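Allow me, if you will, to draw on your knowledge of protein folds for a short while. Thank you for your consideration; the sequence and its tokens are set out here:
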Amino acid sequence: MSKEKKDIRIKYYIRLLLVIFCVVILASGIIAYKSAAAELKKQLVNKCHAMAATIAAVIAEDSDGYAEFLNDMNVDSAYYKRMHDLMIKIRQENDDHFTYIYTQKFIKDNTFSFVLDGEPADSPLYTPPGVQEQMTWMDLLAFREQRAVLGSDFIKTDWGDLLSALVPIFHKDTGEFLGLAGADTDRAQYDAIIRIFIFQTAISITAAFVVFALCMRWLSGNVYRSIKKERDWANHLMFANKKLEKLSTTDELTKLNNRRSFSEYMDIIWEQNHRLKLPVTLLMIDIDCFKKYNDSLGHLEGDKALIAVAQCMKNNVKRETDFVARFGGEEFVCLLPFIQRKEAFDFAKILVTNVENMKIPHPASETSQYLTISAGMATVVPDNNNTQAQFIHEADRALYTAKKSGRNMVVVN
């Protein structure tokens, strides 16, 4: 092959590689943007869900007061003034994350009325109790099924384009459905975050083009090396895109939340309970004599036992704000915000009893003929004198005491 023909072919390969690279960069950018946008919406709506669940739990602590206020909507009552001030405080302390927080009461057909919101009375966004509005599909679903509903995308409303989460409010003692608590994020907050991502992506793509051009100039005399370099860049971009994908928050075996998601949820609850000066309880739970169970029956049966205990714990958790996770191995955690110590202790005892009542045979147990669990419990009102690490340590120490005291029991530190 003549040198002239060889040069022409090399130029052709270089141009082809440049086109391929441009297509890969463009496709990677589009995929990264869509992945980041979907993940951002999910993170924002999860924050809305956590806030709405917090509001529902706080209101449920004084269920009688809220139920009485629903009957007369007296804005001059001591209850309304106290709760409105609390809602304003919550709203102001979370200004960067939420546009609106509120509670709703069902009226009739497709209509609801606002009850409480987080805006001062002199704000143009303030909605007095009793103001009625047409329901969105989310409102209809949440009122009809009396369950939490999370938005998947923005909904057009009279208040703007909103990404929302709704959580039911139930009477603490009777279980009566009292209405909904909601939290919204508007498109402006979403756009502000996504613009930062677009700017960073544009810089990355520009840098990639510059580096690629330099590489092509250096490798122009060798087609094989050029192709190899292109493949390396494509792999690099695919690796970078994977970092934008959602990190798993679920334990693969038990399908419970994993330790990472527990830490993230603990951060949210710890901060909110610190602000509101409300108690939070942690249960550290361990399957008794589990090593002996594996040694006597095999690891496959051990996995089945872990799944059964996880499902039992999941079935016993009823409140939106309660959180169960696999902490590691045969150890689980249960976080119970906004609950008094006695209620948490009663819940833990029921959980221990229900696990034994599954009657899973344990031929090597030193405690019972069936599989059992032990639980260590710690309750605290977060403040500047305690930390999450101390809180977890207290629950773990109580668990150690339960194990040393005969297992199959709950010990409160």
Residues 3-60 form the longest helix (58 residues). The CA atoms of residues 296 and 364 lie 7 Å apart. The chain has eleven helices and twelve strands.
